[in-house]
Amino acid sequence: MLRSKISSVGKDKQQLSKETEKLSKKQTMPPNQEDFKNLCDIFLTKKISSFVKVQLNLINRSAQGRRYSDEFKKFAISLYFLGSKCYRQLQKTFCLPSPKALQRFVAKIKFSTGLNEDLFAFLKLKVDKMSPEEKICILCMDEMSLK
């Protein structure tokens, strides 16, 4: 009888050891991507959280396979306007579109008659980064007849 109790206690001890090991592994396991994204939403600002999520989605893709949203491209253009050398340095750390891809994006802006809101948005991005001396200029617009 005593031997059977010792045997059952030994089995219980083994089960508890296994359960303890499982629980300790769960505590040391890093969070998966979904958990990480949820934590980003909680602890980071909306813009930074969005940037981190985009980087998570792009990190495992080859440079040629990365696809960027128009909003992210506009953000990248604003970084590029801060300085091309700075942008190239950031490209080494983060997944950012190439300068050539940004040029193609800007070249696709549709121009039509009247005032172009996209053009003014890009001008605003550029002017926001200028010093007061650089802002002294004349913006001249003219009309043109098409025949």
Automatic annotation (TrEMBL):
Q: Where is the Transposable element P transposase-like RNase H domain?
A: 112-147
- The record's region (Disordered) falls at 1-32
Q: Where is the composition biased (Basic and acidic residues)?
A: 10-24
Q: Pfam families given for it? A: TNP-like_RNaseH_N, Tnp_P_element
Domain THAP9-like helix-turn-helix stretches: 47-104
- Protein name, entry field: Transposase
Name its species.
Ignelater luminosus
